[in-house]
Give the backbone structure.
Amino acid sequence: MPKPSEELRRRIVADINAGVPGAKLGSERDLAEHYSTSRASLRQILAALEEAGLVHRVIGRAGGIFISHAQVQRSLSDVVGVPAFLANQGYVAGTRVLSTKITAPDVLTQKALDLGAGDFVVEIQRVRLADGSPISLEIAQFPAEAFPGLLEKQLGGSIYEILEEDYGLVPSRADERIEAVNATPDEASALSVKPQAALLLITRITYDQHDAPCEFSRDLFRGDRTRLAVTAQGRGIAVHSPAAAATVALQS
């Protein structure tokens, strides 16, 4: 059973998630009355939420506690699972597993994973949470023959850790394509945004230590909560770079 302070934190985070950035939650006195708690207990929780970037305080007659919804930074330079980069930024990572199944791959997945027409994939659909707030919707597919029993594992954490610890697979690199899309009604419902809201679609093919494709995924990140970061190496104008490792393409 959660401690009273943790239960209070969850209630406040739920109200933050239901609101919009910039909206006023209330004054400290109003919130203490609303949540039936002492101002000292409330102040301690609000300080932690402010440090995490979920709220900010404004001093003065028109002041109070306001929703911030800080952005999560997704690095494009590393192959790392969502829980790891959320934890590195001070968030409590969570996962909601929506569906799992073994299914026949479509043509795009067959090509990405180098599969034949008679092969199957393990498909896992999950919503990723940061401090209880939906951040991304991911649909990941893996060659079923290579990972027997994968659906029997605990799928709430990092699948990369499962692949490494239970199957001896180490993700060595990933090819990613990023584009801006609008949320469908189902995607909007899963991510707690409005239909047609801006999302970042990251389509990824991950390769193992033997350079064989082991994962094909489509991750939809909330546009209002996500920023992308990449580290680029400079070589000087006199040095010929290898074939383009990063490109930007305009969608027609």
